Amino acid sequence: MDPIQFEVIRNALLEATEEMAASLRRSAYSVNIKTRTDFSCAFFDRELRTVAQASGQPVHLGSLAEFVPCAIRRYGPENLGPGDAILCNDPYMGGVHLNDITLMSPVFHAASGERLGYVAALAHHVDVGGGAPGSIGAFREVFQEGIIIPPVKLVQGGRIVDDVFRLVLSQIRSKRETAGDFRAQVAANNTGVRRIGLLADTYGINILQQYIDELIAYTERRAQAEIAHLPRGIFRAEGVVDTDGFSADPVRLSATVTIDESGVLFDFTGCDAQRRAPVNSTHAMTFAAGAYALKCLIDPDVPVNEGFYRQVRMIAPEGTVVNCTAPAPVVGGWETQTRLVDVIFKALAAALPERIPAGTKAMMAQVAFGGIDPRDGESGSETRSYYAYYEAIAGGYGARLTKDGADAVQAHGQNTENAPIEQTENNYPIRIARYELIEDSDGAGRMRGGLGLRRDYEFPGHDVSFTILSDRDRWGPHGLFGGSAGQTAEYILNPADTALPGRAAQRLGSKTTLQLHAGDVVSFRTCGGGGYGDPLERDPHQILRDAREEKLSIERARKVYGIEVDPAFWTTINADFAWLDPGPLVDGELELVIAERQPENPAKRYVPAYEVQMRHAGHAEAAGRINLRIGNIPGLVLYGGHIGYGVEPAHRGRHFAARAVRLLLPLARRHGMTSLMITCNPQNIASRRSCELAGAHLLEIVDLPPTTELYARGERQVCRYRIEL
């Protein structure tokens, strides 16, 4: 098999689905699809194996692979001809929640009439009927959630079946938008049919099928090779969905990940039984959680097709919140599915600490609302229409080994984009009163979690029905390896800083539907991501940056990180003055001693740097009462007359003394000290240059007595510099 042609065909198949996605996005009407890109497209061969899937929404990894073959087999492939397309959203036929409606079309070779496969376009529609605008809410059974569509022919011979189309639209509030979005799905499938047909014309049906077979086999080999490099073992973790919307009992989730010579097994035995509440995940949703987690752990170049999905083995007991049975509600299944991914990663954190993030937003954070559009004519006019709006709000991502968590992003399979204020206000009769990052919402750590997001909705001139389907208002995302949990989410009706006068603030539940009056404001505030590592090891330069960008308050910098930020000069000095002040240290002298030293822990990815000592002439009793951190040095705590050593990254090692002096000068002046002494190795040119940059002048170069610790380390002389205060 020609490897070059293999790559050409492989990428051509993928690009066919990407072009489907582009067509769907550019043709859609709703903001949720055309701007937030809440959709996915895929191609299946004639054996209903997944061949290629556009890189749109990772939550649809696996869910389409289960749903499309089931729906087509149920309808009967023999009942589909050229130009036909069937529509389906049945969650108990391999589907997900009702808003995700999939259109599936057969692909035939125009010249021979031979079936080549199927294309599918899944899109999240802003409304599918049901008990609340947007079709989300705290429902007790699936029938309350909206129209359930079995496999039904929407397009026949290239033309929309009008009776079916009108029947579906009659159940839906936002008819104009939904009609446009359905036609966009038809356009996307037509694009896929043309592109796959062109490939068959170019290479021939038999050659194309041979390369598809090899692509699936190649993917399986690649995935197995990647899995072989993962650590072997059995890894367990538990987590919860905070509430189910009807009771205060959290929903317990349990994940056991087994990695052995057979591959990867995700076992969700131990999860709670399904509930009559919006927290149930279908089998397809849960399979997508395992598929997404595995895809994150292997080479991103491994294709997504049947060969990859074969590696995802799963145990999800029937009748539980991870594999519910009818008629359990499924509208909030993605909330549970996304939290399950967080639990999977938590289980693997100890085995893969360099690759696993701390806890993330791990919820869809869905908001929907709707009502009579006040822009359409006068009250009682027949021209007035019902509008519905839906979106999922971003939140904080978990911190990682070497990076802070991303601020205000979608997490764990969510890849939807921001809905801009301008577009939202132009298309809907609302006003976005506030849209901003939430200061101090991150989980503290050596690497901090990402910040949560605040979005306030105001409804001038009309009443609406407003729904929140979210979570995380009881417990924030977990930290890792000493990192703190992220701040919890909040949902507030008429917050004091944006509401009209006279309207009292009210805290709302994370799963609630309420009726709003004209002028009401709902503030949706998502959680921050969990922190990674000990907060006291955080680089003060990063703390200062966050403070300057108003991501971190000066008070929290002092309380959590032990760093004093001076907003007048935007400098940092860490001084813990909780101890009893001994009074001004008049005529005192503070000495900073710098010496190179190897780190005790060779596993740390830092170069040998410095030992730091501070001595105060005549006031040794005060030595244990000053807490100082400089640069990225962990544990620079003054005790017993000296500071324990720390390590400094190579690119920050130069001019260490100059930075240390700049941090120490305010402390020294505050305590009435008259001078600052700096001692360093005369052979260390960088340290001597740092002293000069700090404004110190050289006093002397002295020989060390053999009894000193520095002498024992091989140093024979020291330079002494002084800065007069």
Topology (elements, then pairings):
Layout: H1 3-27, H2 31-34, E1 39-45, E2 50-53, H3 63-75, E3 85-88, E4 100-108, E5 115-124, E6 152-156, E7 159-160, H4 162-169, H5 175-203, H6 205-227, E8 233-241, E9 251-260, E10 263-267, H7 283-297, H8 306-309, E11 312-315, H9 333-348, E12 366-372, E13 386-392, H10 421-427, E14 431-437, E15 453-458, E16 464-469, E17 490-493, E18 506-507, E19 511-516, E20 521-525, H11 540-548, H12 554-561, E21 564-566, E22 571-573, E23 589-597, E24 607-616, E25 638-639, E26 642-643, E27 646-648, H13 656-670, E28 675-680, H14 685-693, E29 697-703, H15 709-712, E30 717-724
- Tally the helices: what do you get? 15
What's the shape?
globular
Number of E-state strands = 30
Percent of residues in helices comes to 25-40%
Computed CA radius of gyration, to the nearest angstrom: 31 Å
Low-confidence stretches: 573-657
Can you offer a commentary on this structure?
The chain is of the alpha+beta class and 725 residues long. 26% of the residues lie in helices and 24% in strands. It has 15 helices and 30 strands. Strands 2-1-5-4-3-6-7 form a seven-stranded antiparallel β-sheet, with helices on both faces. A six-stranded mixed β-sheet has the order 27-24-23-28-30-29, covered by helices on one side. A hairpin with a 2-residue loop joins strand 6 and strand 7 (159-160). Helix 3 packs across helix 7 (283-297). Mean pLDDT is 85; it is low at 573-657.
